[in-house]
Amino acid sequence: MKPFKCRSSAIGKITTLPRSKKDREAGLLSKTAQTYVQDWLRGQPELYNRKKEFSSKYTYKGNQVEDDSIDFVAEMLDYPFLFKNEEYFENDWIKGTPDVIVSDHVIDVKNSWNQQTFPLFDTNVSNSDYYWQGQGYMWLTTKSRYKLIYTLMDAPLEQIEKAARMYCYQNYLDLDLYFDQVYEEHFEQMTYSDVDPKLKIKVFEFERNDSDIELIKKRVEAARVYIDELLKTLNV
Q1: How does 53-91 read in b/e, with b if 16+ C-beta sit within 10 Å?
Q2: Using one digit for the tens of pLDDT, what is the confidence trace for 100-133?
Q3: Are residues 88 and 137 in contact, defined by beta-carbon separation less than 8 angstroms?
Q4: Which residues is 89 bridged to in the sheet?
C-alpha cells in the first residue's frame, strides 16, 4: 500500500487536535482525524477495490459553474485573465490541484448554493478546513498568499428544471398544468442576474504559515502510524 498522503481539501480533518492534553502531548490523532483516516483506508484498493461515491446538488452546481465563476472573479477583481489550473501537485505528505495559480498567490473558488449560504457578512472563514486547504496549496505551489473567493452564480438550467420537476412530484402537481409556473418560480430563485455583482463575490486572504505547515507534516506522519496500527488489527 502506498504511504498515506492527505488531500489538501482534507487537511483540516487531520489537523484537529485531541481533547485530551495527554493525547495532544503524545502527538496522537483526534477522533475526527481517526475517522477520516479510517474512511481513507476503506477506499484503498488493497482492501475493497472500490471507490467511494459522492455527489450532491451542491457539488454538481459547483462543478458546472466553475469556469464561469473563475471568469467572474477575473472581471470583478481586475485580473487581466485567469485560467483554471489542471496541474496536479504532490510532495511527500500532501497532494492537490488548486483552482487557479497566479504569480505570487493561489486562488480557490467556492460556489455558494444560494444567497442564504453565501457568506455576505462573514469577516472570518467559518469553515477552518478552507484555511488548511489554503496552507496545503501554498506549500505545494511555493506561493506566499492564498485567496479563498466565494461566488454566487446562476444554477445550471438543467438543475433548475430538475428542482422544478421534483417540486411538482413532491407536491402532487400535474406537470402539464403546473410545470411552467413552477419552473419560472425556481428560475427566479436560483438565478441572480438582477443582483448587484458586488453582492455575489466575497474574498478572504491568508498568508503562508510555515509553523502550520510543519504541523501538517506531523499530522500526516501520525496518520501513517495509525494506519499501520489499523492494518495490524485486520490480519489480512
Answers
A1: eeeeeeeebbebbbeebbebbbeeeeeeebeebeeebee
A2: 999 999 999 999 999 999 999 999 998 999 999 9
A3: no
A4: 96
